[in-house]
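Input chain follows. Return structure tokens only.
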Amino acid sequence: MRIDFEKEYNNKLMSPQEAVRLVKSGDTVYEGTCTSVAYGLCDALSERGDELENVTLTCSQIIYPVKMLEGTHPGAFKLSTYFMGTQERNCLKKNLLEVNYSSVHLSQVDLWCRETQRPDVVFFEVSPPDENGYMSYGASGVALHTYLKESAKIIILQVNSFAPYVYGEQNLIHFSEATAIVETNRELPEIPNMPIDDSIKTISSFLLDQIPDGACIQLGIGGVANAVGYGLKTKNDLGIHTEMMADSMMELMKMGVVNNSRKNFIPGKSVSAFTFGSKELYKFINRNENMYYLPFTVVNNPSNIAKNDNMISINTAISVDILGQVNADNIGGRQHSATGGQVDFVRGAQMSKGGKSFIAIQSTIENEKLGRQSRIVSHFPIGTAVTTPRSDVQYVATEFGCVNLKLLTMKERVKAMIGLAHPDFRPQLTEDAKTAGLL
């Protein structure tokens, strides 16, 4: 940073405890998203729990424990999120404090920022400043922080030496825009590579057969997406247009398998909204001119997704019913994650010339209390939300096959879905379908 900026920067520099004194009772405070959460400021605000009332904490995918979410200060804090992570789920499950959540496509997250949970105070974790005093929103902040900045009355920046400086649009904030600045050195949360068992290998083989050279890919989170990502090493001239940048895509870029040469939307660049992976990945995206970060409203806009020919979208689910309805964010009526960007990419990929959309799941899951359960179900439990409606779903894949539901009548669709289930569950699913008048 230039010497002539240093004095003004230092005048705003303070301890986390001093900075959070700017928060008052009744405020709505944004804490951060995924790998761009201001944990130092969160810890400092937790210390004020005895003197605050009715502070709404807004966030997404909190990975590390946060004391404010432990319920030790009744009446001080409540939580509101547009996408649940580990700590938000824990809060809801244990009823530690009031938890509210929203159903919003990530392509429309600006509505959440400006209207649903308009902040009074924002905590932004950012990279160290460049020579002109600009800081990057880091690994995840580009996704929505520009909209939160527009709405906030008070902006507190947590400058983290480990936060990457990423390129793109709406990716920078100047230190002069901050009300207060704090500094920290804290490594970003990591996510381990999901294990790849035989059933996941089989599912990924079905999907890899459907992905041509020159395709543009979007991968969700989970074992199947991980297996497909690493399985793409034999392809050529791939592009990336994805909500989440992951380690497998980094490897494809390093190998030259991804060169973005055939993309139509921002050609030559791997486009993403946020990053979640390993330390190596965070170092890889730092000042990487081959990466281009944009807000969810741009990356997840179906019309932008569709501009890329042969757009391939691969997402997973918790369960899929025999009509093809997808539940990807709710378990037995209890919120698990969120609507997120699944529908955005399901629709955008199918609008693309040569594009395809896949929902890929293992056919069964082990339940500690109930034993093995089918993830292909005749109906969802009461209170379960449908993430992606049957009319939007294209391909569904399990280890027992991959079927394009779009081409089928409803009766054919039911038969196809039963065929994707584990053989042990097919008789009961067939009986349930007959009872419901579907067969």
